[in-house]
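Shall we go through a protein fold together, starting from nothing but its sequence? Label the sequence line and the structure token line clearly, so we can match residues to local backbone shapes. Would you write everything just below, so we can both look at the same thing?
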Amino acid sequence: MLAASLAAGIHVVLEGPPGTGKSTLLRAVADGAGLGVEFVEGNAELTPARLVGHFDPALVLEAGYKPEIFVDGPLITALREGRLLYIEELNRVPEETLNVLVGALAEGEIHVPRLGHIAAKPTFRLIAAMNPFDAVGTARVSQAIADRMCRIAIGYQDASGERAIVGRTAEGPLVSSAVELTRLTRTHPDVRMGSSVRGAIDMVRLGHGLAALRGEGEPEPGDASYADAAVAALSGRLRLEEGSERTPEEIVLELIERLMPAPKPRESEPPGKAVPDAR
């Protein structure tokens, strides 16, 4: 879908929770298409001047506002060179900054005071990524922007896919268990947003590191090293529901109990075995 959108001249927003591979997907498609990428980190401090560019103040005092002293920002660079402009966390960007993009999306050009019109090359595209609206710190993107972009929703990989991802950095039984525990965090009733696969990766690395330092074998549910690695890797990634009285640590430890093997029933006495006389 993303490759077809770029080929068709369509601007795209990739929407999905953190850790679902949005940036990785873009890099792969851009490399395959032979297109350069301008990366922009979206946050509340991204001003129009940081996105578009600015005149060098010192040179303005010497020579005035001349085009040659304008310092191009990532948007101007992408327009001039026909590159992909990739904005992460689009719905964390201030509205006044997003408004700068309307002209580029609608007309393929923008107007910069004292610099003039900057037209986009045919290969210019805006690709933005954003978390779901209800994520902490996000806001709704204006209709003026949303109406000029297609939306591709990206969810978490399935269990086998996540195991394959974690398996690229580590091996052993801990990989499968860490992935299962991480996936459980996404469905707990007290959790609004669970951990991404990055949590499972860190848990495996930390679990193996702890086991090596403590002279233990592969950590498994019920071990202290397993719990220590899980709490450190996952608790900070959980976003709890408003009003929940639980802590992330409590939830991680509760979920670990679900993975622990059920205790084996005590074997009954063999039939016909005499019971000693208590007298």
User: Anything to note?
Assistant: The mean pLDDT is 88. Residues 60 and 156 are 50 Å apart (CA to CA). The first helix runs from residue 2 to 7.
